[in-house]
Amino acid sequence: MADTLFQKIYSHPLMNPEDLEIIASLHQRVILSKNDFLLREGKTSNAYYLVEKGLIRFFVNDFNGQEITTQFICENEIANEVSSLFQHLPSIQNIQSVTDAVVWKIEFNDFQYLYHSMESIREWGREWMSGQLFQTQQRSIEMITHSASMRYLQLIEHRPQIVQQAPLKQIASYLGIADTSLSRIRKEMITN
Amino acid sequence: MADTLFQKIYSHPLMNPEDLEIIASLHQRVILSKNDFLLREGKTSNAYYLVEKGLIRFFVNDFNGQEITTQFICENEIANEVSSLFQHLPSIQNIQSVTDAVVWKIEFNDFQYLYHSMESIREWGREWMSGQLFQTQQRSIEMITHSASMRYLQLIEHRPQIVQQAPLKQIASYLGIADTSLSRIRKEMITN
DNA sequence: AAGGCCACTTTACCTATGTCAAGAAATGCT
DNA sequence: AGCATTTCTTGACATAGGTAAAGTGGCCTT
Fold it and tell me: Which InterPro entries match (chains A, B) (predicted)?
């Protein structure tokens, strides 16, 4: 069952079972309780995590001390604060479990070893990063072109786990609106 | 003068003059007139561009046919539609010169050759991508946490060339507001 | 069972930004 | 130079979403 996790996440045309086995052997299973932190603001990231079970979020604190959720990571996705991990800079983001969760950790040094010894993971890595960049850009564009209620509808449609598992306040800040506004949008969706 | 362009852009701890010379030799100088396209929506990108002179923008068409400027690329920066170039997918973005410009083009195949033969450019590439990801995330966060006039002030402060060289409508869509709103913000900034 | 806390909702009011339409200024074209 | 087109500004009005404060209900703790 963890095997299919690795297969799903590390899928790439150049990937083969031998490489995959080596990759998997460098991951370690970690059990998380709700609200546990995987990375705290100000610390430098030294690992990333594959999510087997549960929901993870990234958040920052804005200048009024409000928590802004910037990403949700669902099952079969990767929680990786790229700019801290690859540039060895203190993170401005926090990574925290929203629910109880099971994740697989791989340390930077082990990844770095793989990256230098396997073409498959290098190519996979570049593709993963470009996919992340694409998603982040899409999200920016949607913040501009769609209304808050449209954004909420899209979230329900495309990532229902988030709407089911995360508290309203986190979803609201992810959508870029106040929690009372999300509450109002929910109400209008029911009555109309 | 083009040499310092390559030095600035391809700077990385592992980079050395020999590598840099090989890299530079695979770029080709291209002269652009205002409004020329480097990539059109629906086409698959097969190159990226270093900007020596002038201003370049990325834009998408939203569902009402409005152009939304998603990025401005200034001098000594790179114009690269990553997800089209590296995943060979049709681009949803357009890349167009805002002013007359001089850029240096490198084709995907040549880059790919470098990427496989030089550790320096591989590491540089990963760092560049993670930098891009960071910037894009920062921009999303600012769209949520800052008001339109704050965003405009930040743009004036951090990237004045854009404010000087791009037309108001493009700047407004980049800031995520209507052009009339940006005009009003400008007025308020003068009188207050 | 009682108190306390948290997540969510609701209401009233406020403000930033959008929309539309008109005019002024700048730029480009022949 | 002169006309056309685009760019920018302005004003009146509309609306999505913000803020603050109070209310409801659930759940945990003792």
Answer: cNMP-bd_dom (IPR000595), cNMP-bd_dom_sf (IPR018490), RmlC-like_jellyroll (IPR014710)
